[in-house]
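Problem: given the chain below (210 residues), write out its structure.
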Amino acid sequence: MESTKRLSCTPVSPIRAAPSLLEDAQAGLLHPPRSLPPKYFYDEIGSRLFEEICQTPEYYPSRTEAGLLETYASHIITTCHPEHMVELGSGSSRKTRYLLDACAEHHTHCVYWPFDVAEEMLMSSAESLVADYPWLTVRGLVGDYNGGLAKLPLPEQGRRLIAFLGGTIGNFEADAAQQILQEIRAMMRTGDFLLLGADRVKDAGVLQAA
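Solution.
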């Protein structure tokens, strides 16, 4: 564990074995339609490339979600009053800043728990966050949420806001989407909230351009 008083990074053990890259490649590339799980895009270089993609005119999802968060972050925070904010697939935490800004505005000084497979990106963004928000504590979690959520080392006390943004739920097949939503529900307690970002049905040309 890499740790300071306001910043730590902890590996999360999976509760089930996740397929290896070889197994995913064999399953996804030998038969049409070809596919690979998006998690393989997000090493340090891939994560930074994705941030550049988010700035292109064609990539509407990130821009639209950021606009929604900018508009409604204050309402979300005053409704939820989170003591802990857990973000699944946090990436650069760029859009999360709207929520943290609202926390600062309303003096809701929660602990932020970013959970991501890309440790380099997680630590880089966490260091920026603790520098920009003097009140913030960041407890980074490194792992693959496809391996399960039961071993997240979250405290037992305190209201949680679980953020699952970026339309990531749309990357899952129906059965897998249902499974991760069930696992999120299992980690929530009375008084907790889920903030889910999901895309709507679009014209195929719009999706392909993005």
